[in-house]
Amino acid sequence: MTLETWLDWPSREALSRVGLTRVRRNLAWGVRAVVLGALLWSTFSSRQGPGHWAWVAGLALVAVCALLGREFFRFTLAHRLAPSLASLLLVMAAAAGARAGGWPVLALVLWCGCAVTALERLPLAAAVPCTTLALAAYMVVDNDNWLTTAVTAAGLGLAGYVLRLDAEARGNAQRLLNQERAARAAEAESAALDERARIAREIHDVLAHSLSAQLVHLEAARLLIEREPPGEFREKILERVVAARGMAREGLAETRQALSALRGEMTPVEDFLHTLIEGAGGGTGLGAGSAVQVTGERRALPAEASGAVRRVVQEALTNVRKHAPGAAVAVRLAYLPDEVALEVRDSGGRKRSGELAVSGSGYGLLGMRERAELLGGTLEAGPNEEGFVVRLRVPA
Fold first, then answer.
1. What crossing angle do the helices spanning 232-262 and 146-203 adopt, rounded to 10°?
2. CA–CA dist 129, 119 (Å, integer)
3. 91 and 103 Cβ atoms separated by less than 8 Å
4. Which of 122, 93, 125, 126 is CA-nearest to residue 110?
């Protein structure tokens, strides 16, 4: 054996009960019940002294040993050598006290248990001396002939080592299973990312190129119209062309955001809001006083929460352009401990309160409300003192 073999702990998978079949788990509980029953039987069958005080003392000793045994299992699972050895040696000392107090069977059971569990759960460099000490105490006080005692002691040592090897084999199997699950999850995630990248390329090749071409043609049409003599018809056509150009530019920006999301390259939410408001203020229907305010400690949001915030802001701005063009918009984003809160408030009229919840660019705040509820959040939309306000809260 190498030095590492003597100094290494059994793995945490081996020391825990993870991976045990139901039969083996029930068998382990059965063994514990038998050991506890043996301890109680030895206590009651070896009553010493007058009255019931000896029973009380014996039961107290069994309870202390059970508590120490539980702490030993907990400390070894955490790979803490000093407290593990302390709890085991205290159990051995309790066994010696039981032997001196007239409970020989209780003492033998405790020493045998210490010998087996030490080999099963401690590094071999610490387990071998502890097992040797426990078996030596057992052999000294055992009343059988020396050959039976020696064979029993050897069998106990072999049982402890076999249990150690079995636990290590189970721990290795559990580690391999966890690694295989992690590899499969990584493979599935990689396949999903590849598929999303393929979809992003398709969208870029079709939609983004189409919108870019539309912007070029609309800009050319605007320049041609501006060369025509002034007149009412010219102004109406120019207004429509400029509006179409703005919508195409906005659609291209949203398409790029969607492509970034598909590639996992989404910009932070606060940056997106600043870009959206700053870009919206230039002739697309929002007032010049529109602003964004961000409070709380900024952090990366889950994809679902981030997408909900982005879509709600876009829908709210679309409704402002449609129902209150020229109104100033105040967007507030608050990072709270367990959630994120968004408020979009405009200074337009209040008359549109009934229609706003179901209008918009094909999605509508009604759909936004349903999406927020699916995420465990809430969305409220309604008139305020000046105009209209939309409030969103989602876990994040």
1. 160
2. 10
3. no
4. 93
Separation between Cα atoms, residue 95 and residue 183, nearest integer Å: 49
The span from the CA of 59 to the CA of 52, in Å, is 11
Q: Which of 209, 210, 308, 207 is CA-nearest to residue 266?
A: 308
Torsions phi, psi of 16, nearest 5?
Answer: -90, 175
Over the stretch 54-97, which tens digit does the pLDDT of each residue have?
Answer: 667 777 887 888 899 889 989 998 899 999 999 999 999 988 88
Q: Phi/psi of residue 381, each to 5°?
A: -140, 130
Helices (H), the chain: 3-7, 12-15, 22-45, 53-77, 81-100, 104-121, 124-141, 146-203, 209-226, 232-262, 269-280, 303-323, 353-356, 364-374
- What residues contact 107, with CB distance under 8 A and at least 6 apart? 95, 96, 98, 99, 137, 141
Q: Assign 358 to helix, strand or coil.
A: coil
Q: List all residues 6 or more positions away from 141 whose beta carbon is below 8 Å from its beta carbon.
A: 99, 104, 107, 108
Residues paired with 215 in a beta bridge = none
- Give the pLDDT confidence of 17-56 residue by residue, as tens digits: 766 666 666 666 666 566 556 655 655 555 444 445 566 7
- Which pair of structure tokens corresponds to residue 297? 């400690």
pLDDT tens-digit series, residues 295-346: 988 888 887 888 888 888 888 888 887 788 778 888 999 999 889 999 998 8
Gyration radius from the chain CA atoms: 38
| Whether 7 contacts 163, CB under 8 Å | no
In terms of Cα–Cα distance, which of 200, 197, 195, 238 is closest to 219? 238
Q: How far is CA 356 from CA 194, 221, 263, 349, 359, in A?
A: 39, 33, 33, 12, 5
Tell me how far apart the alpha carbons of residues 387 and 379 are, in angstroms, rounded to a whole number.
17
Residue with the two structure tokens 């549109």: 352
